[in-house]
Amino acid sequence: MSEVVYEETATMIAAGDLQSFVPFGREHCRNHPNAFNLQLRELQPASELWSSDGAAGLVGSLQEVSLQERERESWQLRKGCTGVKEDEFEEELYTAGNMAVWSQGSRTQASSVYKAFTVDSPVQQALWCNFAVPQNNNDAEEVEQMVCIVQSSCINVHTVTGKDFISPLPFQVSNVWATKFGLLLERKNAANDTQPNPPGEPLPTVFSILHPLDEIAPIVCKPSGPFEGSRVQYVSDSNMKIVFTCCQPSIVVSYDTVQGTHTVWALRKVTHDERSMVLRCPTEPAGTPLGLMASGFLASHLRNASHLDSPGGSGGSGGLGSAAGISSAFSSPLHYSALHSHPSRIMTSSPGVHSRVHSPSISNMAALSRAHSPGMAAPSFSGASRFNTSFHSPSPRGHHGLLPSLNSTANESMAMPEMEPIIPDLCVEQLWSEAVSSGCQREMSSQASKVFLTSDLCESHYLCFLVESHQHLRCVKFIESNDVTQLIFPSVTTIPAKDAAPLQNIDAMLVLEACGSLVIYTGITRVSKVHLPSPLSHSISLTNHLPYLSTPVETVSTPANAGSRHIHRLNEDAMPSPVSELKSLNIKQHEASFFEDFSFQQATPYILSLRDPVCNRVTLELSSGVMLRICIPEIATSELVKKCLQAIRFILPREVAMKVLVKWYNIYNAPGGPSAHAEWSQFVTCFMTLMGYNTERLAWTRHLQFEVPLSPVIAAKKARPSDGGSDEDWDYLLASHYHRQINSQPVCGSVDPNNVPVAEKEDPFSADSPSSSSMKLESSAPLFPHIPALFGVLHLLYQELQLDELHRARASSLVCLLQQLARDLQLEKYVDLYWRDYPSLISCFTERCIIDQAAIGQMHRPSFLSSDPPCVFNWLSSCLRGEASPPFPYLPGICQRTKLLVLSYALYIIGDDNATSTNVWKYLLKLSAGQRSRVSEPNSRRQSSVKVRFSSESLAEQLVVWLTSQGFTLKDLESVPFGVALPIREAIYQCREQPSSDWPEEVCLLIGRQDLTKQAHKMTLAKSKASVGSGFSLVPPASSEADEEEDGMLDIIHEVTGLIWSQDLRIQEVRRLLQSSRPVRVSVVQQPEVSDHEYIEEKENKLLQLCQRTMALPVGRGLFTLFSYHPVPTEPLPVPKLNLTGRAPPRNAMVDLNSGNIDVPPNMTNWPSFHNGVAAGLKIAPASQVDSAWIAYNKPKSPELANEYAGFLMALGLNGHLTKLATLNIHDYLTKGHEMTSIGLLLGVSSAKLGTMDMSITRLLSIHIPALLPPTSTELDVPHNVQVAAVIGIGLVYQGTGHRHNAEVLLSEIGRPPGPEMEYCTDRESYSLAAGLALGMVCLGHGSNLIGMTDLNVPEQLYQYMVGGHRRAQAGASRERHKSPSYQIKEGDTINVDVTCPGATLALAMIYLKTNNRSIADWLKPPDTWFLLDFIKPEFLLLRTLARCIIMWDEILPNTEWVKSNIPQIMRGTFDPSEDINMDTMAQAQDYITAGACMALGLRFAGSANSDAFDCLYEFAKTFMKMMSFAGTAAMGYYNLQTCLSMILLAMSMVMAGSGNLKVLQLCRFFHKRTGGEMNYGFHMAHHMALGLLFLGGGRYTLSTSNSAIAALLCALYPHFPAHSTDNRYHLQALRHLAVLAAEPRLLVPVDVDSLKPCYALLEVTYKGTKWYNETTVELMAPTLLPELHLLKEVKVKGPRYWELSLNLSKETQHLKSILVRDGVLYVKLRAGQLPYKDDPQGWKSLLATAVSPRNSGVTAFKPEAISTFTSEPALISFAEFFCKTSEGLKSREDSLMLFSAMLYECVSQECPEMLPTYIAIEQAVGALRQGDFQQTFPLWQLRLVVELWDGRMLRGLANKHDTLLTSEFLPVMKNAVDVALDNWLKDHSSLVRSYMRGEVLSRDAQSIMLACFLVYRSIPCFRNTQANLEGCNSFADLLLRSNQLGIPLRDLLRLVPILLSSASGPQSLLFPLQAFSS
Q1: pLDDT tens-digit series, residues 1654-1665
Q2: Could you tell me the sign of the dihedral formed by the alpha carbons of 27, 31, 32, 35, in that order?
Q3: How far from chain centre, in Å, is Cα 745?
């Protein structure tokens, strides 16, 4: 082991304030209502006991009590990570008794309880752990934070989100550890577990839980060693104790109690191979005879069975199992069901080895062994144990393997026949192990008491463990290898220590030495001692000091005693330590005597241990029991110093860097250290001294410090009373008498005489005398060889600071240091560069120090230090001018801003697409570091999730996306200087105009499109979890009136409907028509001859008719309120009553059906209340949060509401929530045997699992369908309607899958014959129809491609069912069933077409849906002879026509000719009167065929609002209405006409679904009022369904025409409506609700992003071209229903009111789909100066409309007051308020106010408000230049960049004028002003320029500042070396030639010509012509 690197100097640093520390939880527990606090109250802190009572004896006894009591409390602290508080805070987890308290607190906020838990038994341990919860859809895992509370029998796990789990423990746990993957558990060893039994293996000792719901699995290990090879086995060594785990890197440290060594393991998921290796059964031959083995085995078990202990405390009893002679031990807690592994975990061993024996005792055994219970703490199964993998040859004892047991090989066959191993999840792989120590120390336990990770200042990482018995800390260095998974441990170092704690955020650790002093180490380098601010005794009254314990005070230099100032040189040696060290305590004999002689009361408290380190805070535990929290200071607080240190650390070799950092740390944090604002001065002094400067000699560094003459190490400095103060105090102090006096004060104290340089011997402060003007550098100084490299990195750092407005002020401090180094290194060009940047500052400095020529050889000159100084503005400027420039050097990780901007320019200005990917090194030169093993460059500060993808995007888009991916935000952009930022702003401006709709949130934020940002934010939220109320969601209004509550239609959102239908109150009208919760009005006039009794009957009969309508309303209401409500999880769903009473005028008397005066059908309300339940349930939106408990919670108490609940369940299925209902509950509901509940549940579950082929649901449905059960199964008595529902359920679950078996069964079920005993005899039609519909759904749209079904002849069979004929022989399973014919119905062997036709027809229609298969369609043609026509029911003609049309989907045309073309020829021609034509037949056939065609038309154009289709249908509706009104209806029959009319009405409302069309609404209202006569329940149902579809989902939904939707609509709108409310003969009423499956949200609601209110916006919708029409574009005013998305090419929000936004659907429709699903909210943003359509429909009030007059008057006409109406940006409004209004004080500055107003107008009208600061900055720069009051030339650099960008744009021509930001006349004016000012100056001061070019020293005055401005703006290079060439020129041509090499732009060269040539010819001769030429 290498010893510690000691820093010889005994230095000290001051710690922060001490605070006494008491765990917050203790206080909280004391007040917690809990039995435990009684004990706590009696137990005061030990310190109080010791100090309050002098009697030592009592203290002794109390001490024992309290220590024993104290055992039970424990706590841990960590850095806060929950919540989003900005400042760092600490979290504490405290446990005592049965409680665990989790609290949080920070410096600014007092601690508060975050969560507190109380459990049933004492808490053994509590810890934080993060579990990874796999997400269902993909591989990504979401990490959940949890608290685990360990009790003796279980672990309680509580997540931050509020979930609770309890994981039972199958064995006693000694310790629990948190890891990256989950928890590790160590099993407690029983006493007799240490010697393994001869026959078997010890049980595993370490287990893992990856998630509280997972099973506990053993861990496998992979030791590294010559003997084991890569043998993988379970961790079962009882000698191995875990002492530490860590998440990052994922490692485990363990200790071997026998070997006495520590081992480091990597913890990872187990690989597949390792898993199989562990689970594989060994097949070595048996070593010993089986008999002998078994007997030994049994004996051992009987011996062990007596002392088993279990967590329950009951000893298990041993008994003999018969199977293989194995004894078992059962113990009570084993019957946890949780321990029986669930099926996914079971992996059976290979069948070759085991034959499975089914015997109860054995399977019990297996279950028992799976739960490794403490009952098996004695290895009762060791031989047959399921951890039976390691039957390998014995490992030699000497090697420290994990299994040092003597393994005897045993034959597997003697083990249990059935052993199912638990699959291991995690594996530990050995990385490093300590060498075995020599024998003499073996007896002392050297187990580490504390293990932690730390890193040093140069980023090496160490794993440290503290061995208390040896009092030392071992630090193991580790390096992450290239593949990151492996760690390499190169070296071990030992540091003597009593205790230690890491200080994470300052890369150091605090070590408590044996003598009691605290020392800081960074890694293994000792930094300094820590001086504690006040004596430790501050919390305890000290009576007397023990004489031999205290050190003599005189030798100590504490801050209190700082009279003598020690000024040491850098390498001073000794200095006494100021902490009273207990020198005697580490001597054994003294220790004993000390405790005997003195009572505690008199001892000076000393530090016992350190605990709870968080960041740089740590708790000291004193011997007196008091705890103090101290704070160790950071390495630097000022940003500039931090950056410089970073750069220094980067470039220097590691050892030197470490020295410098340690030295700086000591100086900076010396006791009584400086206040913050002196930090930089201190740094400069320290740094320059380390380089070998004598800072006392340099005038400027000498003035930096003013309190104490600063030597590099301040021994003790006076503590300053306050840290306040400001820079104004400096000058006062510098001038003060005290300052001069200090300067002349002689040096006193210990100066090491050997090392003082000669110059210093005579007079320490001879700097004042002029003689010492030449100063030499100390070449032996540590940093002397590295000066050029350091200068280079600091120069680059200076360039970085220039690029950040916020840090630029600090650059001026840095420039002082740089200019000094540059002068001394004789880099003239650098000095010149600094002078140009800060002319007034640099001209003050003239001193330079001399570097010995001999010493120059020692300096390392780095390659990146070129003679031409790298200047970033220069680089960017040449980039704008289009000149090539060399790559710009940068420091990775430090100069991020430089890198970002250089690459941005390369990408956007140079236009190199690959600048940011492959060509980076063309533009950037990365400096190599001074240290070999650097980590690679850290990625940007906040790496964003934006994926950079460059396709054909413009450069601007590429730039914006790339910047975002680098984590660049608007805030960063504001800090970029305005000239540099202009191109980026321009790119942003371009992107803002045409953004792409699918950019991520961060990009939208950068380009300033809040509308897009909001949209993207909503999407990301939705991805993370399906939450509802995020940001803006359309929330229905809350209403107070009680009567409103009841009708169930409250939740329609009026904000949106008010925009869609703004002109009228149609929504209110629909509510009125559909409400069923108020009594109806029964108005019957009493005729004189009618008696009162008859009159009452008459009223009740009338009411009965009205009730037919009321009962039909809920079906429509369900559609109207579809998905409009988000339920509150704590309240049941409000279900409106179905009110069947009436009120009779005039007295409003109650009329009731239950009075018994008339006959009311029984069960009349069963189905209506079912529908009412469905309607209520359909209100729930799919995005709501609904769980199993809430569904059960809604179950009604009273049985009469059961039907409603059944409907509610079906509705939950339709909106997808029923999947959350637990299987157990489903089973519960079905076993009740309530018919309605079963129907609702089966249909609901299958709708929710639409098309999934879900197996469990299939089983559920099969039980209810006799045909799907095996033929021999017992006949279940399933009600007929439930069978129908189940058959439809099969269709839904297998929709579109073409599942062969189900199709076969359903095909035969269509023609199921009636059986004997009245089976299947009633309502056969609905069953057959259901089978047909289900068959159609299973094979939906497959057409002739039914794979593997050709032998079934599906179409032929269906055709036969449709037209009749002989029954075929039943095949297969169902043959048994139908042996005997029915005794009731005589059908013979022909098919009963009346039963089978509808189902078969629709099945054909659905199978061949949209296939345009003409041959099948021709089968469905109506017959063309009268004779055949007579054989077909008119209703079937309707179905056939409908079927035929939807097969020939593409031929449907929206006009009357097409509809009529479906009527056969014979009916259309003139009739031959001789033929016997039945006119009734003809009329009915015609009408029904027409209705069928209209229905098909409705389906084809469903949800399209196609005006042609609507007009066509409306025509037919009017025709039928006319036919109904005149008397000739007798021929047709009212019923038939009404049926056809209802179908046409439904077709119309399908076409206009969701649009709320008025004409359809009028028709619906007309039929609503017809209640008498033939108008039965079914017709009402049809009309109100039409009304519901018309306003589907309150106008937010419409119908889709996908195959699945058409199938749902065919089920729901089957054209035979029930005659009365209990009629299910032809069609099950519940199926009417399946229309919901066809609904899809297509309403787009624009929402103004500023006001968050829905608004109008103009959309441009482009349709893709089809064979019916070309690509077309229509304009819609949103909110509007969009057409089906697959028909669209793009949707665009059009200007000019709103920012344009296009959603391109040709690429992908997913984005728009997700918008529509989430409320359809599309955020839009008003352009500046525009008003929304609601306020300004014509657009006459906008800001730009006023500027009709010529341009300039537009500027004056702009009233700043008016701005608030046009922009909502507070910054602009206040700018107008304060800078653009004339007030009294500003009268004089009228012109600048005008200018500001003009700027504001420009910004607002150009839509770039963010340019306002740039305009102002330009204006200020020009103003300052005119007055000549510049301190620095920075603004001119920026102006120059702006001008160059503009020139570049002008050169390209004004073709792309709209792209540029500065389009106005503003810039040319400003440019001209600068030119004029500089030219005027040049006229007067040309001599100054000339003298500069000759390299003469410049005076310090205003002129030199102007000169610098001139040189910068005119981009004239440094002439120091080139002036010779130019002087000699005598002609202009000559000059041009030479200047070409210099790279001066031509227009700037012309300005110089007169000066350059003036020497050759007359002084002014050339000026004028050139002046004219240049302008």
Answers
A1: 999 999 999 999
A2: positive
A3: 64
The answer to whether 242 and 206 are in contact (CB under 8 A) is yes
Neighbours of 1794 (CB within 10 A): 14
Burial, 1356: exposed, middle or buried (Cβ in 10 Å; 0-12, 13-18, 19+)? exposed
How far separated are the first and last CA of the chain, in Å rounded?
78
Tens of pLDDT, residues 1627-1667? 999 999 999 999 999 999 999 888 888 999 999 999 999 98
Residue reference for tokens 């961060």:
1002
- CA-to-CA distance for 1539 and 541, rounded, in angstroms? 102
Return d(Cα 98, Cα 1830) in angstroms, integer. 72
Q: What is the mean pLDDT of residues 196-211?
A: 72
**Which amino acid would we find at residue 745?**
Q
Distance from chain centroid for Cα 1825: 50
pTM beyond 0.90: no
Q: Is 926 buried (19+), middle (13-18) or exposed (0-12) by CB count in 10 A?
A: middle
Coil, strand or helix at 1383? coil
Residue type, 1131: E
Closest CA to 82 of 127, 145, 148, 131: 145
| pLDDT for residue 818 is more than 60 | yes
Q: Partners of 427 in the beta sheet?
A: 220, 268
Task: Determine the average pLDDT of the residues in 1467-1478.
Answer: 70
Reply yes or no: is the peptide bond before residue 862 cis, omega within 30 of 0.
no
- Residue at token pair 């190599």: 928
- Kindly give the pairing relationship between strand 1672-1678 and strand 1657-1663: antiparallel
List, in order, residues 6 or more apart from 1963 with CB less than 8 Å away: none
Q: How many CB atoms lie within 10 A of CB 387?
A: 26
Tell the residue number behind the tokens 């009075």, with chain if given: 1155
Q: How many residues does the chain have?
A: 1975
In the three-class reduction of DSSP (H, G, I as helix; E, B as strand; rest coil), residue 786 is classed as: helix
Q: How confident is the model at residue 1336 (pLDDT cuts 50, 70, 90)?
A: very high
Contacts of 335 (CB under 8 A, 6+ apart): none
Helix ranges, 550-587 (H) = none
**CA diameter of the chain:** 149
Q: What is the distance between the alpha carbons of residues 1950 and 317, in angstroms, rounded to a whole number?
A: 109
> 564: closest CA among 579, 574, 550, 554?
554
Q: Are 203 and 236 in contact (CB under 8 A)?
A: yes
Residues 6+ apart with CB under 8 A from 522: 456, 457, 507, 508, 509, 658, 661, 662
CA angle at residue 183 from 179 to 184, to 5 degrees? 90
Within 8 A by CB and 6+ apart from 278, the residues are 220, 232, 233, 234, 389, 421, 424
Tokens of 1920: 């120091």
Q: What are phi and psi of 175, to 5 degrees?
A: -160, 150
**Nearest CA among 1067, 1046, 1069, 1070 for reference residue 1055:** 1067
Q: Give the count of beta carbons closer than 10 Å to the beta carbon of residue 1737.
A: 11
Residue 996 DSSP label:
B
